[in-house]
């Protein structure tokens, strides 16, 4: 399962971001995660993707799920430990493996990729740079069973 708040911001006319829609999208992602974990009859690995916009998270998620369709991938920037904690806690509540995937993509590459996105998905350079600077490395102390570093 691919959980991504951006999926709930997409419309027939492209991605539409407002504060209200963003809050609702995140709420729906947590509902999806809870539902999937609570109706789970087998163990799943839950991957929490960490990295700024255009770092390669969604591409990795799609490729990973082609090979491992039963896994759960939570695909969002999740730069702060405090943002990741509710996802980790929910995953642990259902006794699932929680794996961090940290995208160590240089800012220059993220900025280049961002400019190649469809216009409705481009993030401002200022916002992307701020997210990049705010990235907190994942740690086992947070509750991750494994940490994977992706250099792109």
UniProtKB/TrEMBL annotation:
It comes from the Bacteria. GO terms for molecular function: kinase activity; tRNA binding. Pfam families: AAA_33. This is AAA family ATPase. It comes from Acinetobacter defluvii.
């Amino acid at each position: 399962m691919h959980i991504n708040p951006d999926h709930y911001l997409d419309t027939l006319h492209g991605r539409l971001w407002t504060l209200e829609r963003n809050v609702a999208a995140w709420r729906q992602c947590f509902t999806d995660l809870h539902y999937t974990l609570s109706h789970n009859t087998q163990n799943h690995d839950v991957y929490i993707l960490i990295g700024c916009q255009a770092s390669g998270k969604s591409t990795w998620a799609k490729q990973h799920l082609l090979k491992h369709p039963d896994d759960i991938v939570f695909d969002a920037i999740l730069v702060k430990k405090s943002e990741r904690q509710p996802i980790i806690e929910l995953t642990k509540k259902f006794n699932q493996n929680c794996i961090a995937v940290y995208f160590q993509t240089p800012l220059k590459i993220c900025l280049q990729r961002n400019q190649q996105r469809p216009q409705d998905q481009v993030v401002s350079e200022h916002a992307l740079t701020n997210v990049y600077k705010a990235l907190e490395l994942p740690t086992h102390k947070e509750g991750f069973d494994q940490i994977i570093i992706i250099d792109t």
